[in-house]
Amino acid sequence: MGPFVASRRVMGTGKRSSMGLAGRDFALLIAATLGTFSNYAPLLSVVSLWVAGGGSGHGGVGAATGVTMATTVGVQLVMGPLLRRYELRRLLAVGALLLGAPTFAYPFSSGLEWVLGVSAVRGVGFGMVAVAGSALVAELVPAHQRGRAVGRYGIAVGLPQVVCLPVGVWSAQRFGFTAIFVVTGALSVLAAPLAGLMSGRVEEDTPDRGRSSARADSSHPVAGLRPLSGPWVMLIVAACAVGGVTAFLPLALEGGAAAPTALFMLSAAVIVGRWAAGVFSDRAGAGRLLVPGVLACTLGTAGFALAISGLPGLAWAAAVLYGLGFGALQNDTLVVMFHRVGRSGHGMASTAWNMAYDAGTGVGAVAVGMVSQVLGVGGGFAAAAVLIALVSPLAWRERRAEATRRGTPALAHES
After folding, report:
1. Is residue 127 within 8 Å of residue 82, measured between CB atoms?
2. How far apart are CA 170 and CA 374, in angstroms?
3. What tens digit of pLDDT does each residue of 83-115 get?
């Protein structure tokens, strides 16, 4: 991974860098993450409402999220050369600018073509932010603290969704869309200099690797990604539900507090799930929450389907259940991926994980929109629940595989 060229040669002394969980660079990463995701999170729903107000149907509403995620995944597919050439902190800064600056263009038109064009550029920036940010967690924090570090990074990712996603929907209805676009655009743009202030140093237990080894890591991506396929499939399938929920729940429960409150509770539950899973994985080992996470996502998504189909009181319970499961699944899959690729593959694991999350979010929004045209939004959520349930056997297999990787004592403890 190219950013490792800024390793001991940059540190200069060979002394242990004091990054850790309380280090300056890690704190700057958390602050920059809060800024960029305060742009990304609320606009998942706000842009959907904006394009719906412009006269687009469910297909167009889903496409707004789908295009953002498509370009996000597209840039993640070419992150290998970028990681070899540029430092992670520089990629994070450029991504923050590409995510934030185009946001100021939304108010010029709510027409579908214009919105899709702006969203496409923002997706490029978000793809860079997502990969660089999560890879920096592995680079700045020693391996024995990685579960908690991923959990704390997850809080920085999730907190804007707790606060900004529901507040964004409410504020757009009360103060107008332009105000939301200006504020969220500024927050992401201001995150760029924070990334630039990072020192570029890495933790001592991260290996010293130059450009030549980084190039080797990305030269055979298929072989390198094979150990990640199980967690990748689980995450992409579970993420389909969050894409559909954020895009269509405000439309399906329009006119009251049910949708903003459910989105708030979902985002808060994701934070709790990620943080708790991080603490748990450092103590008990990663992989143990894969099965509970998938099952909770299945039941929560089914709860959303029932809420849309005539039982709106279930929306809040569904949000909590899905959020806890999805948060735990996010943390466990990322830590498992970092373990399986070893010290040399942090960038590759981060890219694969973010591709799964973002592709699932985009595909879910588009697919729920298409199914909704035939079966209604409740039917779209029900289809997503069935899809998640189908990966339950895979979750059991991956849990056992991770226990085997940890060794016989872990297997005995599990049984």
Report:
1. no
2. 29
3. 888 888 999 999 999 999 999 999 999 899 999
What does each C-alpha distance from 72 to 185, 241, 334 come to in angstroms? 17, 18, 18
Query: Tens of pLDDT along 280-313?
Result: 887 877 788 999 999 999 999 999 999 988 787 7
Q: Which residue in 158, 168, 153, 160 sits closest to 188, CA to CA?
A: 160
- Among candidate residues 39, 69, 374, the one with its CA nearest the CA of residue 242: 69
Residues near 393 by beta carbon (within 8 Å), at least 6 away in sequence? none
Indicate the class that CATH gives domain 2-219+227-414: mainly alpha
Q: 66 — phi, psi (to 5°)?
A: -60, -40
Dist CA 326 CA 379 (whole Å): 21
Q: What is the pTM of this model?
A: 0.73
Q: Where are the domains of the chain?
A: 2-219+227-414
Measured distance CA(191)–CA(203) in Å, rounded: 23
Long-range contacts made by residues 388-392, C-beta under 8 angstroms, separation at least 24?
388/237, 388/238, 388/240, 388/241, 388/294, 388/297, 388/298, 388/301, 389/298, 390/237, 391/233, 391/234, 391/237, 391/238, 391/294, 392/291, 392/294, 392/295, 392/298
Q: Can you tell me which residue has the tokens 């992150």?
A: 79
Residue 2 pLDDT > 70, yes or no?
no
Q: Rounded distance, CA 201 to CA 213, Å?
A: 18
Amino acid making up residue 31: A
